[in-house]
Amino acid sequence: MDHQPPPFFKRGPAPVALLCLYVALSLALLVVDARMQTLEVLRQALSMFTHPVQQFAHLPAQVFDNSGSYFASVARLQDDNAALKKIGLENVATLLRTQQLEVENERLRKLLGVKERQRASGQAAQILYAARDPYSRRIVIDKGQQDKVLAGQPVIDDAGIVGQVTRVFPFVAEVTLITDKEQAVPVQIVRTGLRSVVFGLGDGQLELRFLPANADVQNGDLLVTSGLDGIFLPGFPVAKVVHIERDTSYSFARIFCTPLAGVENFSEVMVLDPRPAITLPEPLAREAAGRPAKTLVKSGLTKKKRLKKE
Amino acid sequence: MQTSYSSSRILLPVRPWFIGFTLLVALLLNFLPTAALPAIPDWLALVIVFWSIREPRRVGMGLAFLFGLAMDVADASLLGQHALAYVLVAYGGLSLSRRILWFPLGEQALQVFPLLLLVQIVQFGVRTMAGADFPGLSYFLGPCFATLLWPLLTFVLLLPQHQPVDRDANRPL
């Protein structure tokens, strides 16, 4: 037993003890955040402090951008204006026809008894910045809880799907890009109607996984959302197939795609309103409510029956 | 206040608000939209290392932990990723603080380099456990550049502590 003399100066707990405490704290935070995702409230509270600092940090860049546009010459603005007007006029014909077609489609669907398609609507948002962390393919937009943005809403730009809102703060929201490693989008190949799921690779590309080596996919095929997930509306362009590796020693083809939307660029985006939850038809819903334990089996059976009928 | 290599000048005591101010400025610099540029140093880690070496009694693991959490929230990374790295680095700075100031600035920078590298390595380890890929070697360029900045940073951050040089025949120091 060695006895230490009492300390002359009060210095608080020993450094090693403090280190252990803080390391344990951060490890606990890491595990809880990675495994359970229950720390959103803490995140939102902390963002109340970091948000003003971030706003302040982005001030110079904004001022620079704004002053640039302030000094843009009148001639260029007039040119732009003329070009935009021309494009608008060119699009009018298609737009008018599309509106008419949409109405007609709705009527036909009603006649057929098929559920009506949901119209796409949403709110425009500006991309504030991309996360500094090279690991997360995420962007932050300037709409948050104040604008009734919810986690899970799809985000698009003028060319296609950009990503999905994953975290909402009081004034901003985080959007996970479709190129993020943890993001998957159910898609459909326009040319063949083949359905699949496209996964982000984390390096700006996408991969179409689990398609057999002899699947009918070609370079240049366009992928659009299939809408089977109940989150993305069907028909939005997602990506284009750029490279296919067919190796007979593997059972799946490796199909690489590039996103169509300006996923990694700074621009304006549109946050689409969430789709209403898909509800079961009335008799099925009643059945599910009555016998909750057997729901899965039952719905499986009814699906089979329906398939047989068809 | 500590003695340091090749300095016959005695530094003034540091003002606490200046420490807080530099930490905030470092946080601001980290928040700048510089994600696309290579070899941008982690300013906050650099300043935390500096103050935990110079003033281990004032800047310790608690502050490092709080600033790490702020970085995590702003960076959309896992909560605790930066906090863990900064706490470890603050501890490293604390244990270096007794001897590092006896070396010239260049050698100090060499001793600080492993600490700054540790920040990236810890974050890399955490993300790898969570299932991320290797981000490329350029991820580790930041600490190298930060190491080069060490002498400059020391000069700038110690500026308010220099006292005016007035020669006094009776007091040689």
From TrEMBL, chain A:
This is Cell shape-determining protein MreC. The chain crosses the membrane at residues 12-32. Keywords: Cell shape, Membrane, Transmembrane, Transmembrane helix. InterPro entries: Cell/Rod_1, Cell/Rod_MreC_2, MreC, MreC_beta-barrel_core. Involved in formation and maintenance of cell shape. It comes from the Bacteria. One of its GO terms (biological process) is regulation of cell shape. Belongs to the MreC family. Residues 128-272 form the Rod shape-determining protein MreC beta-barrel core domain. One of its GO terms (cellular component) is plasma membrane. It comes from Candidatus Accumulibacter aalborgensis.
UniProtKB/TrEMBL annotation, chain B:
It is a multi-pass membrane protein. Its main location: membrane. GO terms for biological process: regulation of cell shape. The keyword Membrane applies. The chain crosses the membrane at residues 12-29, 65-89, 109-126, 138-159. It is found in: Cell membrane. Keywords: Cell membrane, Cell shape, Membrane, Transmembrane, Transmembrane helix. GO terms for cellular component: plasma membrane. Belongs to the MreD family. This is Rod shape-determining protein MreD. It comes from Candidatus Accumulibacter aalborgensis. The lineage of its organism: Bacteria, Pseudomonadati, Pseudomonadota, Betaproteobacteria, Candidatus Accumulibacter.
